[in-house]
Amino acid sequence: MLLNNPDDYNYWRDEKLANALTKLDNCVVEIRNPLALTTAEKDQIQRLCQHNNFALIQTQPQADYSHSIVQLNQQLGLIAPDNHLFVSNDTLAHITPTSDKQQGEFIPYTTKSIGWHTDGYYNPLEQRIRSFSLFCVNPASSGGENSWLDNDILYILLRQQNPEAADLLTRTDAMTIPAHSENGKILRPKSVGAIFMPDHNQLYLRYTQRKKYVQFTDEVVAAVALLDDILAKGSAYHFQHLMAKNQGIICNNVIHKRSGFVDDKSNPRLLLRGRYFVKV
To answer: Could you list the residue ranges that cross the membrane (predicted)?
Structure first.
């Protein structure tokens, strides 16, 4: 197994670091028509996701953004969407500030900053989110910058600094997300699992810094603090980008965060997000 076989891990680590890109300009794919990807465009996106677990895309203005993004994702094999709370009929979540009280309890639908997390960290492990796309239809007046880091690189940085901490975060009881319920009805069951775990001999990360609704076993608290420290300090492998209109990211559920923003209520920030159970 990748995580507990030193030879397999060392080979994977060396190959990962050798192929990892650190300049954002090298990770951008220009899309001529998202409804009909060229072979070169598709290959470039998949190659970037294989080596760096993400690709940035840039398109021309679209008549129907939802349709275009769904069609683009399907051409990449992203055909198993997660129909989580607030997903529209187009299988995408429309991430924009809301006046709806129930939806407004979830930070993505506000102007607040969001700490480091992977998408669907609260999902049952059999419904783990392996990829997502996030596309900017309209940016905020100011702010709303996204930051992210390849999960594989995060694990490598942690293991280089403290192998014991990396091992502790693979405990199957490391992180618990309590059930989410309203008016006595459970909308989402309790989720218990590791933070780093093997997934078809690849690495999977399930994590959030939103500690208010998260429980860690006592044994892993110090390791979690070290993980947070690595995320906060930054590295050559950390990326930051304020997405402009017609830009997006397609990724294998990399750990990411968002800064707070100021919005124009007459022209609000809108991003379209799709979550999927398969990798790119």
So the answer is: none
